[in-house]
Structures are given as C-alpha cells and as structure tokens.
Amino acid sequence: MQTTRRFPRFRRAATRAGVIAFALGAVIAGSAVPSQAAGLTLTVNIADVVRPATQVASGGLYGVGSDSQPTTAMLLPLNPTSFTQPAPGTTHLGNGATEPCCDSLDVGDNLIRAGAQQFIRMPDIYPSFPYQWQGWADWESKVRAQVQARLAETDMTNIRGWELWNEPDWTWNSSAAGSFNEGWARTYKLVDSLDPVTPIVGPSDSYYNHNRMVSFLTHAKNTNTVPDVIVWHELGDMDWNNFDEHVADYRAIEDSLGIADRPIAINEYNSYNQMDIPSVALHWMSVLERHGAREAHRAYWFEAGTFDGLFTLQNQPTASYWLYRWYGAMTGNIVETTPQSWLDGVASYDSTRKIVNTVFGGDYGNNTVRVEGLGSFGSQVRVQLLSTPGSGRHTAVSAPTTISTTTMNVSNGAISVPVNNMDAEAAYQLVVTPVGGPTTSWQQVYEAENQTVVNANTFGSGNASNGYYVGQIDGSADMRSQSFVDFTVNVPTARSYTMTIRYANGTGANSTHGLAYNGSAWFTVTYPPTAGWGQFSTVNVTVNLKAGYNVIRLAKGSPYFSGGTGYAELDNIRLT
C-alpha cells in the first residue's frame, strides 16, 4: 500500500460502515480509541494454549531497505518472521522515493541473519503505482528475468513465495490484460514452469471480499492454479474487528470447493491513519494470533527501510518499536487472552523458565489484567509493568517506562493486576515470574517450534517439551527446498557453551545434521536412534558463541553443506 492510494482506500472504508460501527457504541469514524473509559479486565489463562509463539505479526512490507538499514543488530531483538520485498531488479519508486529500494535479493542476507523469510512481490518491477501495464510480452519477460535472477542466487534460502500480483481488485488492467483470474492462471503456469519448488502466493486483494474470493478460487481450482498461501490485505481503520469473520468466511469457501486448507498471510495490515499508534498494532497482534494467520506484515504507507515506522529516519526506536520488542521476546506458547471491549492483548507462557509475558492496551483509565493458571508459581510472584507511549514514527523513544515492580500473592492460582491511568493509544507489558525470577537471568532453552523453521513442519506431542516439536526436516536438494531450523539465541558472555540437542530419530540407524553458527564452518552432529519418531533423547556439542545474539543452524540441507544422512526431528536446544 502506498500513499497514492489514499482516496480509493477511504472511499472503500466509507462504504463499509459496519466495520467502523464498533460494539461499544458511538465512536468517531477513524478513531483508534474509545470515547470513554470503563473498568475493564483482560483475562490471561496460561493453561489454555493457542499455538507456539512464532511472532505472527512481526513482519513488514518494504520494511528492510538494504543490507544495513535497518542493521541486523537492530532487527534481531524484534525477532521478525517474514517480509514482503520488491522484485529482483526492481525499478519501483514507492511513496515519493527518488531511487528504487529494497530489492529482495539485495536485502536477503540481512533478513537471513535476522532469522526472517520473505515473499517477492513480482509486479513491483514496474516503476510507478498503480502499475502501468505494458502488454503480456513485456510482463512475461519481466517474470522470466525475476525467476532467473532468483535461481542464480544459490545461497539465498529465505524466499518464502512468489507474490504474482498486488491488489488486483483495483490495479489489474482488465481492458488491456484480460480478466485477472485468467491472468493469474497464465502467470502462475509460467512461474511454475520456471520454478516448480518455491510456493506461489495470492491473490493479494486490497481488502477481503467474499464474491471475489469465490470467483478467484473457483477459477484457480479449475485451472490447477490454487496458490500455496492465501494472501489478502487488511488496511481499513479498525478492520481488526472483522478479521475473525474474514478468516471464517475464507475457510468456508475452501470447504465448499474441496480445497485443502492453505496458510493465511496478511502481508499488509494497519491503516494509514492508525499506523503509528501502538495500541492499534496491539489489536492487530491479538486478532492475527487468535484467528490463525501464519504471518502478517506491517503496511508500507510512508518511508521504506524503517520497518514501517518501528525506527525513525535517524534509525532510533519509536514507541511502537518497544511493543514489537516485547512481542519479539515471547517464547513458549501463545496462550488464551479474553478481551473486554477495547482492552485486548497477546500473552505467552514459557514453561521452562516460568515467564508469563503479556502485551496489552486499548482503553483509558483504571483497568485490570487477571492472570490465571499460576498454581505452579508458588504463593507469590514478581510482577513488572512497563509502558510505551502513543507517539508516532518521527518521535524517538529510547526506552520504555517502568511503571512498577512489585510482589503479589497468588490466590487460587491467579493474580489481578491493577493498571491505572491507562492511555488508550499507548501499549503496556506485564511480566510475571516466580519470586526470585527464572532459574537464570538469561534464556537457556530454545524450543525448535519458536524458531525460524524452513521447509519443515511443527507437530504437537505430549512427549515434547512445551508440547511441540519440528519434524519433516527432510529437504537437501537446493536452496529452495533445503530444510533447517535457525535458532536465534542471546547469551551473556563470549565463551564456549555446551549445547544439548533434544531430538528424535526413528530410522533405526544413526542420522546426521549439519551445524553452523555466525558464518562458521559446518560440522556434523550425529543422532543415535531413539525409540521412535516423537520419542526424544539428547546429544551434546560445544559451540563458541559471541556475547549477545547468535544464529545457530541445524540442517538436513543448506548452502555450502553437503547434506545430512537419515532423518531427525528437533524438540529444543539447551545452552549451559
């Protein structure tokens, strides 16, 4: 999304008054905050698991501008999941830029170092927006050049999908190019003939529309061109209030057509008016996690390369940065949060360290966060409350504000934390630990399912720590299909660490993975047989890590590694 689209977007929002008519009653259209405060309670139940913590909402459109802006060091604390970046060889001048920016292959190494993947937006090869169609011969030539450029980058492992078009509901030139559905099928078949491995994503409409989705999927099924990942955009003021309905409607269409469930990616979310309000981003985090998006990317309304307003133009953190940093620190599982009116939040529970991390906001005045399921924490807990203000993308915020650090008594496995004088545009963090805190001051156990999982899948199991593990780490053919898990770890000092890998190997013989970290040479990890798949044992290796962030890759296949033998599943790693 770009600022040149403001009029179409506002016109669309005005015809969808039901989105704006929020259940609380009278509000001003476009407002991100309630008209008055109420004594509300957000309930967090750590015993009710929603999904593994994977930072669904921590992506960006054009969020990375180069190999050094933002720097990898700036990105790592945010734990970004994925981005959408422009086509290889882009000529696109977005949002008043004077030079093309953010070529997916140019920024790819920066994203890999930060543990993030990316979609390539193919039509951003055109210089202007909306795209100026130059004919099928021109378009197909551009498509071939992009795919060939990507295939030549044999060490680029993080291309998550080809996005064939962007917002075709108003940027596709039907009079010159024919119907979009036919154009989709034609482009899909061309890309698939050149690169049958990389997923194809779409249709990427500018907002969710039932009739368009039915038409698109029906045609796609009939032509065998159903996308591997379904994408649409959520760009209206307060559209978070309708996201659950959009997901339910889409899943019903899949069922009616007999199409297997596809992952959902919202690769543009948040509105022009509300982009820089932390509590609005918090609302989006909440619904994206709660209703099953695989990933979502902050919208590109303003400057490229700032992670869409998480950094100022001088590379300083903004208020929203701290919200995303708190969210990026979530480990273990996302757990149930029950909102009340405007007060909402996202929470995680890391059972290894006994840390409950809740980010919340959305209302004025005196409110409460109730945390349930704390029976194993003892009779008292340590409670830390922080805030970040409602300032925008041009205001640097050097650190969040610590509101209080207290000890509270646990009653019937629960605490109720008062949060007074809330600002409805600000965001808040509540961290609950047993008295005395975690067993160490730094994280030691890293669950595989919380990490960057490439060409593999997450499964639930009562045998796995935290309830999940990563399996089907099977690919080794080339950079498009190689399977690995990248563990981003943060250690206090530079030194040698013992890394204990919890794994399963049901092959009946030794299996191996490659291990590398921070650009080191590869060496081999051997996994003796276990009692079966999903039946775990451990092996120890030594790693020499630098102080701060390190990325450790365990791979069946990866560039510059000849490939592992047999097969193994990964539960977690422990550093001691």
Describe the protein's architecture and organization.
By secondary structure, the protein is of the alpha/beta class. The protein contains 12 helices and 28 strands. The strands form 5 sheets. The chain has a 9-stranded mixed β-sheet with strand order 15-14-17-12-11-10-1-13-16. β3 (82-86), α4 (104-113) and β4 (117-121) form a beta-alpha-beta unit. The chain starts with 5 loop residues before the first helix and ends with a strand. 51% of the residues are buried. Mean pLDDT is 93; it is low at 1-30.
Shape: globular
The count of helical stretches stands at 12
Q: How many strand elements?
A: 28
Largest sheet: 9 strands, mixed
Q: What oligomeric assembly is this protein in?
A: single chain
SSE class: alpha/beta
Estimate the mean pLDDT confidence.
93
- Which runs of at least 5 residues are low in confidence (pLDDT < 50)? 1-30
Keywords: Signal
InterPro entries: CBM6, Galactose-bd-like_sf, GH
Domain CBM6: 444-576
Protein name: CBM6 domain-containing protein
Brief account:
Helices cover 20% and strands 31% of the residues. It is α/β, with parallel strands linked by helices and 576 residues long. The protein has a 9-stranded mixed beta sheet with strand order 15-14-17-12-11-10-1-13-16.
